[in-house]
Amino acid sequence: MSNSLILSRFAAAAFGALAIGATAFSTPATAAPLPLFPFFLPQIEAAPPPVAAAPEEEERFELPARLRRQVVNYYTREAPGTIIIDTPNTYLYLVLGNGQAMRYGIGIGRDGFTWSGTQTITRKAEWPAWTPPPQMIARQPYLPRHMAGGPGNPLGARAMYLGGTIYRIHGTNDPSTIGSRVSSGCLRLTNEDVIDLYSRVSVGTRVIVLPMTDRRADLGRTIR
Question: Containing domain of residue 199, as a range?
Answer without folding.
Answer: 65-222
